[in-house]
Amino acid sequence: DGDTVLSEGRYLARLVRRGQWRRAYAETRARAEFWQAAVQPSPLRNFVGHVRLAFVPSWLRRFRQRLTGAHQKRARRNIRDSFILPEFAARIDLAGRLAALERHRPGFLLADACREHVLAIDHPYLTVGVERYGRVAAAVGVEPRHPFLDPRMMAFCAALPEEQKLRQGWPKFILRQAMASRLPEAVRWRRGKEHLGSAFTMAYMGGLPSAEQDGFDKTAIFRTITEYVNVASLYYAGFETLQGACCDDIYDVVHLAVWLSRRESRQGIGK
After folding, report:
1. Which of 39, 87, 105, 121 is packed most tightly, with the most Cβ within 10 A?
2. What pTM, to 2 d.p., does this model score?
3. Does 128 score more than 80 pLDDT?
4. For residue 23, what are the CA distances in angstroms to 6, 14, 30, 113?
5. What's the number of CA atoms in the CB half-sphere (13 Å) around residue 171?
């Protein structure tokens, strides 16, 4: 929620449209320095994307998307690169669902930064995320709070000048300023952003017991998920050792299998 509420959105494209090319390019370079090792396009390529977004008419972008089926192609590519069983994806029209989700984000530049910000806050991703946190917390008797989603905070941030959200490459600039004397300087002005959840998952998966310990039965997992997951791709990605580049995705598959097993058990009890 903090990422969404304090996002600079398409600020750099708006700078280009206002004729502030030099400033837009400087911010593009500075932002690339902030993210450091993150996999991103070069600053020049990124800047060209902002220029295209600033000047290509919205009607032309929409026409090109319809003509090329860009949303559908991207959705099909994402499905193909995932562990989802193609037959299951086709049965539930997953490509259509993903394309519909992508259309929630305007494919063109909004001149009104406040309106763009409100649309970002209203995106289903944020709602789903907060609901998911609530379900996980409720399972252990905790009530989560989201201070950045206080209506007063959201209204304040939506109305902020864009340079308060991104300045000299620093995202969430106003928050960094507000945390003076409240956070160590090394934290307040730290570059980059690691995902602690991913690091925790990798460590956890690396320490999982073998199939003979704690009842971790891969055969049972396969039996549960074959209707939904491409089992062959799991082995290719490292499922046998529960490690590898796709560890996070494998972790999701394991949880899906556990959830399905428990659901079947509950249904059996009901019968």
Report:
1. 121
2. 0.76
3. yes
4. 20, 11, 10, 18
5. 20
